[in-house]
Amino acid sequence: MDKEEKKTINHSQEDEMEVYGYNLCRWKLAIVALGVICTGGFLLLLLYWMPEWRVKATCVRAAVKDCDVVLLRTTDEFRMWFCAKIRFLCLESDSFSNPKSIVSEVCNGHGVHLTDNPAGGNRHEPSKYLQTHSHQIRYFTHHSVKYFWDDTIHNFDFLRGLDEGVSCTSIYEKHSAGLTKGMHAYRKLLYGINEITVKVPSVFKLLIKEVLNPFYIFQLFSVILWSTDDYYYYALAIVVMSLVSIVTSLYSIRKQYVMLHDMVATHSTVRVSVCRVNEEIEEIFSTDLVPGDVIVIPLNGTVMPCDAVLISGTCIVNENMLTGESVPVTKTNLPNPSVNVKGTGEEYYSPETHKRHTLFCGTTVIQTRFYTGELVKAIVVRTGFSTSKGQLVRSILYPKPTDFKLYRDAYMFLLCLVGVAGIGFIYTIINNILNEVEVGRIITESLDIITITVPPALPAAMTAGIVYAQRRLKTVGIFCISPQRINICGQLNLVCFDKTGTLTEDGLDLWGIQRVENMRFLLPEENVCNEMLVKSQFVACMATCHSLTKIEGVLSGDPLDLKMFEAIGWILEEATEEETALHNQIMPTVVRPPKQLLPESVPAGNEEMELFELAAVYEIGIVRQFPFASALQRMSVVAKVLGEKKMDAYMKGAPEVVASLCRPDTVPVDFEKVLEDYTKQGFRVIALAHRKLESKLTWHKVQSISRDAIENNMDFMGLIIMQNKLKQETPAVLEDLHKANIRTVMVTGDNMLTAVSVARDCGMILPQDKIIIAEALPPKDGKVAKINWHYADSLTQCSNSSAINSEVIPMKLAHDSLEDLQLARYHFAMNGKSFSVILEHFQDLVPKLMLHGTVFARMAPDQKTQLVEALQNVDYFVGMCGDGANDCGALKRAHGGISLSELEASVASPFTSKTPSISCVPNLIREGRAALMTSFCVFKFMALYSIIQYTSVTLLYSSLSILGDFQFLFIDMAIILVLVFTMSLNPAWKELVAQRPPSGLISGALLFSVLSQIIISVGFQSLGFFWVKQQPWYKVCPLHLDACNTTGSLYWNSSHSCNETDPDKIKNYENTTVFFISSFQYLTVAVVFSKGKPFRQPCYKNYFFVVSVIILYFFVLLIMLHPIAFVDKVLELVCVPYEWRITMLLIVLLNAVVSVVVEESVDRWGKCCFSWAALRCRKKTPKAKYMYLAQELLVDPEWPPKPQTTTEAKVLSKENGSCQVITIAGDPGSVAY
Questions:
Q1: Is 715 a residue of the active site?
Q2: Is there a contact between 553 and 324 (Cβ–Cβ < 8 Å)?
Q3: Where is the P-type ATPase A domain (predicted)?
């Protein structure tokens, strides 16, 4: 049983894999070696392409614990196979004290529990996890990650750093002292070198890998076969074409590797100062860093070579490499729970949760701030590919395959061609045997039929449309790093937009402020920069509560903070290094108003304004900063006015959050109404609060106090109202998308009502549409989770009854087609917290909410990704457009992610727009649709090309004839390649239409189109082939002079002669007739399949294609009606009577007319007929889940939920105080009450 075991690694993660153990088997290896020799190396190639077969053919199953080789299979929909060799890491114990304990703690996969000194490891049961009698650890490497065998869980696991399972307390108590040299050496042995290695393969390696591609192996087989059959010129042409393709591919691949290598290698190796246990500072290379090392961040900054958590000092960091946000971010030291006034001590450190205290690999530390005599230190938590930058590089190096119906159908298409080739293969063998053809010729001709049926130019033809689309996108400023995604973008039917910087302008303008006095809002004020307010706590909060810093004398930071600070007109000064050294208590940042704003004397008895009692100099120093955290939706600072004893705490953030942390008696009673009025108008509102701190709080105590101790019992001071204007092009672009039946969704971190207001202003939600706000509450105090439904508009006031009239929320079906369903005109809006509760407790409601959800506010980055996944789960093709800041996950997950940022974070997004405008979205979809239709056209054309040539060869084989070398060359090079590469040049249609192109090749209309053209082509070609044999002048061995002179139209001088028993296999009447008819058929189907509107420009606007077709038509017509001796000699054509030339012309003209009429008929009526037949005969439900759901909801009387109602998750049973939630099967409205 042990040998049949299956292990799972990376459980419940994106890269989850099954692991199977195998051991090498000598007798299997011997059999495989024999097979390789017998098949001329083909078996070796097959095993190279198929890792699963390779392992199973050479190995026997073994227990995973003791195996030599592991076979890995992904658990996603692709089920891809990989194999890896087991290696051993030898740990010698001579040079270090008690290494066994260290090894045991590391090899069990729990590197997070490494002790700070080797001797102290006994408490971790040192000998429990070591492999018997040795210090060897078994591991394998997959996608740049090492997986070590862990005896405690009996499975492989990757070695973790300090980013999991380590409490914030232990970060300070156990890891802040640094490592001994012995411990450092052991950890380096296990964790390896700290570098993100992107090896640029040599040209030779890339060449071998590229040449071993199945397509090129098939090409090689074809060339050898053609050479044996004397097709030297054609074989040479294919070799040249393949070489050009290989060189182009090698150049492109190597260029991408070099670019990625250069991006990663920048500052990858730097010298760093490391603190050791004995407080000694050692200088080492960054490649020698291991988790647990304490590094010193230099004053003038550095590029971080690892992920590290800050334990002392403050850093100003540029994180554009990871987030796309070029705004400098302030990083503060991790709060130490053991010394906090109010701390839990049980909080576990996480780079995501504590990202405001974590310095990420690849980010640039611009400058540091430190305290007297204390260095700015950080503890290394992750190194190499485990870092955030390493994970990003891994996602680029090892991308998930693109799953798209077109590509799956393409393989089916190739399999069909192989099937057709198989029939031809068998027919050729039987026909030649019956005609007593020699064995050598039987072999070459039967194999030749395979190379004819599967066209060598197919891969090049398929990529042409995508390459042209990529080039056109580049001209409109859209850059693409994943060309295969262009086709998928042609299927997008829903686009998610970030709000700030995407739909609206990036910057915010200060509209005004509204202060609070005596629990009442004062009138709004526009001008904040005046003498009356200069010494108010309100302005003091605006002056201090921000994360601004000066970089090379220029004020930098968050745009909102910059606008706020510029509005008051104050001056920010930062202490220099020399000034810092002179003071015990430093205030790194000091703010003060300009002198002209300070009043000459302090007015007495002014009750309306709270003023500082102050001398002529008025300065405020920022003592401690608690940076903005998206999870908390606020930031705060501790500041001190020069000359005052007590310090002040200031806070700013989301109004709802700030108000909840203030004393209720300081919050105006109409707070919610005032806030709602502003947010409904689309303003962004920020609340301010203040509190005087106790005099016992010294500067030193403030440095270690927790933010929870500061952020409570505050006085509400008022609101700052910021205006965020819509971008000029936003409404027009969204209108174009709506006309094209493409849904639009807003995903933002902003306030709910602000987002709803912007959605209305930009046309995402129409004036007559209703908005239902879903407020989901998690289980609490024994009560189950529930959703409260509120109507954001007049519905809540206009009706006393809970029933909704059907006229209030109109439901309509605009088109007969399910694809064009206009869903009921209502929209759901919810915030991130509600979204998380619904995902967890109301799984059955998620698809229904995805069908109508339009506004998602206060969404965290991971929630944006979850939303994209939820939309994909109901079969939407999802596009995501964001400015790169916090959108990276969603941009990667979407079918088509478009970043409006040119920064390095755009490597996570398939598409990057040079201009920060959403007008790139319709452009991308138009080009995607054009590329997709081009792919269909090329597929159809290549299918017909294969079948036409297959028919020609099969017909000629029946009379022991074949096409000549130059005939093949002319057809494949002069006709097919020219047509394929020019028919792909059709530009995209100028506007988006409501109709979407089909997603796959297997559709009724498309298959009928191909089959009808196949029948027409085969029919007319067969007509010509059999008709020529009925002519009175026809002979098996053509006598050129006699045949031509019967018309008196041509004099032919030919030395060619043959006899009836041994006819020429090329120069005969059948060959010439089939060659001319088939040549015209290629041109006809190219024109017929080169579709234009509604996805591409008409083919007559594709000038290269039109010119190519005209020239080819003219040339073939010329050599058919007026033979040219030199051309006929090269193409090995024979002379036929003039009447037969006219007959062939009539055949090809009739062929063209029938082809055009049938294709037009299929286009006009085919889709309707097939849709009607599918609905009438099969009563088939729509393939897309969202369309099926839309049908259900149209007849669901309980949906949408009624206003002012609640949906609960019912309790099934209660055991031990826990409740089990059951989902409501099909009628959530039934539990509304």
A1: no
A2: no
A3: 272-396
Among 1043, 1055, 1028, CA closest to 959: 1028
Buried b (16+ CB within 10 A) or exposed e, 373-386: eebbbbbbbbbbbb
**Above 80 in pLDDT, residue 814?**
no
Q: Which of 498, 648, 750, 1128 is catalytic?
A: 498
CA dist., res. 893 & res. 80, Å (int): 19
Taking alpha carbons only, the member of 975, 970, 951, 949 closest to residue 1113 is: 975
Q: In angstroms, how far is CA 373 from the centroid of its own chain? A: 47
pLDDT band at residue 183 under the 50/70/90 scheme? confident
Which position has the higher pLDDT, 1229 or 1189?
Answer: 1189
CB atoms within 10 A of CB 59: 21
* Strand partners for 380: 308
Buried b (16+ CB within 10 A) or exposed e, 143-162: ebbbbbbbbeeebbbbbbbb
Coil/strand/helix, residue 170: helix
DSSP state of 385: G
Residue 990 CB: number of other CB atoms within 10 A?
8
- Token pair of 314 as six digits: 């403050």
430 contact partners, CB below 8 Å, separation of at least 6: none
Q: Quick one: tokens of 761?
A: 């202003």
Q: By C-alpha distance, which of 1079, 1082, 1084 is closest to 1156?
A: 1084
Residue 1140 and residue 1031 in contact, taking contact as beta carbons nearer than 8 Å: yes
Name the residue among 1020, 1143, 998 with its Cα closest to residue 1012.
1020
Which residues, at least 6 apart from 974, have a Cβ–Cβ distance to it below 8 Å? 1112
Tens of pLDDT, residue by residue over 1121-1132, are 888 888 888 888
3-state SS, residue 628: strand
Q: Own/partner pairs for 1211-1217, CB < 8 Å, 24+ apart?
A: 1211/784, 1217/782
- The more confident residue out of 371 and 686 is 686
CA atoms within 13 A on the CB side of 404: 25
What's the pLDDT band for 809 if we cut at 50, 70, 90?
very low
| Alpha helices (H) along 1125-1230 | 1125-1131, 1138-1161, 1167-1173, 1185-1194
Residue 348, SS3 per DSSP: strand
CB of 1229 within 8 A of CB of 1206?
no
What is the reported pTM? 0.70
Q: pLDDT band at 1152, cuts 50/70/90?
A: very high
Per-position DSSP letters for 676-706, written without gaps between them:
HHHHHTTEEEEEEEEEEPPTT--HHHHHH--
Tokens, residue 861: 């980055």
- In angstroms, the CA 111 to CA 103 distance is 10
Sheet containing 145-150: order of strands: 87-90, 136-142, 145-150, 155-158
Measure the CA–CA gap between 1058 and 1064, rounded to whole angstroms: 7
Give dist(CA 431, CA 957) in Å, integer: 8
Q: Which of 1203, 1219, 1223 is nearest to 1211 (CA)?
A: 1219
Structure token pair of residue 904: 């390095």
Sheet holding 571-574, edge to edge: 520-521, 509-517, 715-723, 683-692, 648-653, 634-641, 620-629, 589-592, 571-574
Helix (H), strand (E) at residue 17: strand 17-24
Q: Are 826 and 807 within 8 A, CB to CB?
A: no
Beta-strand relationship, 743-747 and 853-857:
parallel
Q: How far is CA 799 from the centre of its chain?
A: 45
pLDDT at res. 614: 42
CA distance 848 to 857: 18
Q: Which residue has the tokens 């939820």?
A: 870
